[in-house]
# Entry
Amino acid sequence: MEFYSKKIERVYEPDVLVCGLGPAGISAAVAAARMGALTMAVERCAFAGGNFTNAKVVGIIGAVNTITGALITGGITFEMLKRAAYRREDDYSRKPLCELFEENQDSVGQVYRPKTTQNHVRQVNSVRLLFDPEIFKHQADMLLTGSGVKLLYHTVIADTVMAEGHIKKVILANKDGLSCVKPKMVIDCTGDADISAMSGAPFEKADVVQPGTLMFTVGGLVFDDFQAFYDACRKAMAQAADCGEIGIYAGPSVGWVRPGMMNFNNTRLVFDATSAESVTEAEIRGREDVFRFFEVYKKYIGAFKDAYILDSGPYLGTRESRRIIGEYVLTLDDIVEGRRFDDAIALAGGIVDFHRLDKSGHSALQFVKPSDIPYRTLLPQKVDNLLVAGRCHSVTQMAAAVTRMGVTAMLMGEAAGRAAVLALNGGCTPSDVDVEQLRALLLKNEAILND
# Structure
């Protein structure tokens, strides 16, 4: 065991510290800042957006009721939809959502249409709403800075300093060296419950987690019929696997980006997102798979004749790691049976998207009605000035297959940000926040809490 000590001269003292600027962190920071709290937010990447930007998982699931197409996301999440999202039309053109909302449409169209063949959900009826990653990065910057959030990109959390179940200090590391933050409230939006784990809050992590993915984009594609192109991609993967040319693979799910440009969710990577060594190995393996899969496509599909790999995600897309054990643990039965909660602060979207690691192809999808997310799932145990938002909230592994979606995480983030400031203003802990006051505040800011 080694010990190291150093005087830290750079000190910050915000009211609220948001750790991680994925979808949940963006809305948490903006909500807290807009309520007048001195808000600081830190992020390891050079930009905000989490899986939407650093993993290029651009498909939007959970924004609307899958059956009716009605919008179930409001507040700050709705702002980001208008700023950076578009709907893929049936002719594969793009229509910005801001234009649809200007037309006063009460429905933005179904994300999924529950029409299936024997083996899979037809891709032509699959994801219809998407974010543009570059626009998302820029608009997130504008939203955060415009709300008065103190931002630090390229910054990781090194440790926390605790005193009797209270986070006294958070230690940061970046190009400035080590810095110390003395926050009054902390919101863990790291996706992996990093702050919660460092602070001693109980959490769980399944022995076998859902596999992740390394997304990649291909340019220079030439085809006329998307469905025929997609079917050819599926056939090529299956044929290559049968011949032993490739190992296990995901999907493939193919997302329309622009004419001649497609985004592939094709790799199936098993790794521990809380281990640097495991993530490093998975990144290397993922890039190897990307090039191997691309060569298969070029071999079997004419549309790839002049195609090229444009890029891959800067980070792996992680579906699952740590989940806190909060004041309530949301279950899949809660979701499937449509249980209502008095402390609901958001609605989760309508598919159970659980990915297996022992079988190639698509995940099994189950369509469900929008479901309540209780405020208590944002409240970790044993730490009195900490809230959690995003995929690491208090939920079972199977229920997380519904609530881990990016827009759902963003809804949780706004609730956490507003609750943190209510706790500060009321001189209480987040657990003692008046939930009716919180819900009223969310509704006042155009949240949607009933489908």
Notes: Residues 48 and 192 are 16 Å apart (CA to CA). The chain has eleven helices and 22 strands. Residues 216-312 form one domain. The first strand starts at residue 10 and ends at 12.
